[in-house]
Amino acid sequence: MFDTLSDRLGSALDGVRSSGNLTEDQVKKVTREIRLALLEADVNYGVVKKFVANVRERATGAEVSRALSPGQQVVKIVNEELASLMGGTASKLQFASRPPTVVMLAGLNGHGKTTTAGKLALFVRKNSGKNPFLVACDTYRPAAIDQLEQIGKEIGVPVYAEGTEPAPEDIAQRGIREARDGGYDFVIVDTAGRQVVDEPMMDEIKRVQSAVRPHSVLLVLDSATGQNAVDVAEAFREYADFDGMVLTKLDGDARGGAALSVVSVTERPIKFASEGEKMGEFDYFYPDRMAGRILGMGDVMTLIEKAEGQLDRQEAEAQSKKLMAGKFDFEDFLKQMQMIKKMGPLSSLLGMIPGLGKQLSGVNMDDLDNKALGRVEAMITSMTSQERRNPKLLQNPSRARRIARGSGTTPQDVQKLVKQFGQMQKMMRQMGGGGRASKRMPRMPFNMR
Amino acid sequence: MGRSWRSFFKRKKESEVTEPTVEAPERDEAAEEPEGLAPPVATREAEEAAAPEEESAVESAQVEEPVADGSVAEKPAEVEQARAEAAEQEESGGWFGRLRQGLRRSRESFVGQLNAAVAEFRDAGDEEFWERVEEILITSDVGVPTTARLVAELEQEALEKNVTSAKELRALMIEHATRMLSGPVELDVSRKPTVVLMVGVNGTGKTTNIGKLVHFLPGKVMLAAGDTFRAAAIEQLQRWGERTGAEVIARERGADSAAVAHDAVEAAKGGGADILLIDTAGRLHTKVNLMAELDKVKRVIGRQMPDAPHEVLLTVDATTGQNGLRQAKLFHEVAGVTGIILTKLDGTAKGGIALAIANEVGVPIKLISVGEQIGDLHPFDAREFAEALFGEL
Fold first, then answer.
1. Contacts of B230 in chain A (CB under 8 A)
2. Which of A41, A416, B246, B356 could be cross-linked to B143 through a Cys-Cys bond (beta carbons 3.0 to 4.6 Å apart)?
3. Does B235 touch chain A if contact means CB atoms closer than 8 Å?
């Protein structure tokens, strides 16, 4: 189910050479694939329909560039359309001219409001030099106030709470007053999670908003939300209009198509991207990066940043050169593996590389992943350095047997690894070996800038 | 209306409980890793073996009823009230009524759409009609592969049976969806103590649904605060313990979750608890380390009680889109999920992801949660869910 759009388009356009225009028939095939990819990414059905119509119009008769395959050409159009739909650039926070700036968080149960409150507080202190203050207005969920208080303590931000008895709008008002008196210039009001069909609860958030008059209302939305995200957003817009969204749990593998739907329908931008459970894992949202994620086209920028955080730059450059030249051996593979393991599961990393999916389809990635990685490591460390540099030697069965013994695996496992490695080398050579293939891959992740 | 709680719990008399011989209680460290994935299989086999006894299990449950009532009386008044509320609800249209009410807004448009489509239905060869059905299913989060399968099945049967009326067609749709959703829904609480492990992604409602479940479980229930990570998760569970009178086993925040589980199983065995509910921290299924931690919790439990945990329940938020499938798949791989709790069905989400999970992962939905009240947790009933999805007959 996680075929990338580029794979889908690739197979839909098999046999089409990179010249001439796309025919209507090809465009039809292609738009079907786009439609499916978007639906699988949880983009709202109605939004998909409109979007596909746009792409069809642009793609029909479009001049196919020499540098790109027809599939890539369409992907490019789709990507541009997506990015423009989501707003080209990151939308930053506005601060009130007369402090404190008041931000209210709203959203469904369990989408991450309270965690976001803490993260946002830390973010504005670190990035904008603000002095944040938290107000606990979730008077419903057991221990929600304790949660905010613990988070406040962890990041050193005061939390205003009055228990669960008073009305949330009163707590909010008093909290803001307290913040102003205390000289705090950024107040975050956390509210209870609610379902949009629950009218008393929706009325409540309306009351909180009109009592507090926040400068900004942020709708907190789980990136795994499905088709109903649009209904949810419209309901919140009706009761407590928001001016931006926080997309949460982006460290999962949800495509986040719901976010696109909401942006498209409400015309409210996504302002922040939240991933991970650590307080620092929070940033402005970059729409261009999200487009790739939704389409499963890879997220090169994120990968590069992840890699930069973990890898030694010069080492990586040297490795990438070797990789491209097809001179990559087991020695390098072991090094890469150890570095990559720090970055997360291999399959998810490779998934970030655009176009790699199809090229790797002959190689069973699951076999290379996680637990298997440990075994691969054991096999490589059981090789002599000569064998590591020259994997061909391993075609000798007695060597394979020895390695299997040394690593607690079977000779078949060793042979399989060697075979897979050979495939990978070949593939890398094709990609890096200049000519047509290299033009298809505009940016390689390990080719740092 | 609705599947009753009484038949939801699979109970057996002590004497009927046979220790599964498949699993050796003593495992040495070296043999442990490769065996890591064996327990769920063994447990499932044991369950399947026990399946024919189901009928008698229900009977014996009724025989045991007075005993269960006796222990219930020890619980605080709120529990009684919740039970009474639940009973009341069951009379007034059941959870199906709640579900219907909860889904009112979306259902209106959804069923309206379907009605309009079905009204225009001419014959089974009507391409446009099937496309419309596809659209309706996809907008309910059923997902592309499951939708395709369902529509293909329906189309074929409609052709074969020469279905021409809208009524017949709708019955057929419900039939197929029901078949897809059917599975063993009973919660096996026959062991003493029965150990139930709650797992799921962050914010899907693990702790809340433990709180709700306590009210319905027969016998003496004990809770374990295995979410030692999230701020105030322990306090949240303790609050539920106070409300329901269930003892809560906890350590400090940041403690090893497996250690809490260890303490809890010991306490449950020693303290005569009938059922132990173990909460765990929310984790994204993509986090390798956290999933490994879950595996460890499960192994620690299994070491202390060879066939435990007896149930592993995964909470899935009904508002989740296609990622719900990935969640179910990966949690199932690591923890051997025995059932799904579909939570937050009280919003605008139609919970179509349940269909996708049942079809593609094969884990049964056991419970649904349709509101924030304690009485809003219900045993899952495939037919009624399908009816809610496709409108009334």
1. 147, 277
2. B356
3. yes
Q: CB of B239 within 8 Å of any CB in chain A?
A: yes
CATH 3.40.50.300 for the A101-294 domain, yes or no: yes
| Maximum average pLDDT range among B71-75, B81-85, B278-282 | B278-282
A41 vs B: CB within 8 A? yes
Q: Where are the domains of chain A?
A: 3-85, 101-294, 302-432
Protein fold of A3-85: Four Helix Bundle (Hemerythrin (Met), subunit A) (1.20.120)
Residue A106 near residue A205 (C-beta atoms within 8 A) = yes
Distance CA B346, CA B84 (A): 21
Other CB atoms within 10 A of residue B291 CB:
20
Q: What is the pLDDT of residues A135-193, one digit of tens each?
A: 999 999 888 999 999 999 999 999 999 999 999 999 999 999 999 999 999 999 999 99
Residues listed for chain A: 449
Pick from B393, B317, B313, B328: nearest CA to B359: B328
Cα gap A217→B122, rounded to integer Å: 49
Q: How far B35 CA lies from chain A's nearest CA (Å)?
A: 14
Cα–Cα distance measured from residue A206 to residue A407, given in angstroms and rounded to the nearest whole number: 63
A1 and B CB contact within 8 Å = yes
**Rounded Cα distance, B333 and B363, in Å:** 11
Render B155-178 in DSSP notation, one character per residue.
HHHHHHTT--SHHHHHHHHHHHHH
On the CB side of A318, CA atoms within 13 Å amount to 10
Say which amino acid occupies A329. Answer: D
Percent of chain A with pLDDT over 90: 34
B251 interfaces chain A, CB cutoff of 8 Å: no
Q: Is B342 helix (H, G, I), strand (E, B) or coil?
A: strand
Q: Is A40 on the interface with B (CB under 8 A)?
A: yes
Write down the pTM of the prediction: 0.71
The C-alpha of A67 sits at a distance from chain B's nearest C-alpha, in angstroms, of 33
- Alpha carbons A282 and B365: distance in angstroms, whole number: 34
Domains A3-85 and A302-432 share a fold: no
A111 vs B355: CA distance, rounded Å: 22
Report helix, strand or coil for B375.
Answer: helix
Say if the Cβ atoms of B201 and A224 lie within 8 Å: yes
Q: Which token pair is A324?
A: 């491209």
Query: Which overall architecture, per CATH, does domain A302-432 show?
Result: Orthogonal Bundle (1.10)
